[in-house]
Amino acid sequence: MTRISLVKEAHNLIKDRLHPGDIAIDATVGNGHDALFLVEQVMPTGRVYGFDIQQAALDSTRSRCGPLSHPECLTLIHASHAFMAEKIPEQYHGKISAIMFNLGYLPGGDKNIITRTDSTLQALNNASRLLATEGLITILAYPGHAGGNQETDQVRDWCAQLDTKLFSVNTVYSAEHKDSAPRLFTVRKIG
Q1: Cβ neighbourhood burial of 12 (10 Å; 0-12, 13-18, 19+)
Q2: Which of 4, 48, 120, 132 is least enclosed by beta carbons within 10 angstroms?
Q3: What is the pTM of this model?
């Protein structure tokens, strides 16, 4: 089986749903690739809220998004994604068009600082409530690093317990359908 880019797959799925003026969240900004992509979709009148616990990730994202013609479309928040419901203005609750999670650690950063299962599950619960009808959550999970197997399993279980009358869930693997392969969970709010 040919290996596919799960980041590209997530971007393609979101590109079909996200439009200028929409509101989106990058739950784990990392080096800013997803934040930049999201801002490019929603500008000039939309907004992207980006979360990370590492100042280095926020700085990298700010630098990557600096040349944008509409930098006001990006708000970076130095906090865990677990607090997104508190940090996102209330008028946007239930109106978020896309929420991206890219779990694991900051590429090029300290590999001991990783997303944690408990905060990720709290963030996913919040994300499911913040999401607009027909909105999309993408969750890129990486088993194989310290904590990654458990987090991936818990995200899978979280997806499985969602009400199928309200959410449609799909899983895409980067290569073979095997436990050690990175995977992309997609959650679309249908009701």
Answers
A1: exposed
A2: 4
A3: 0.93
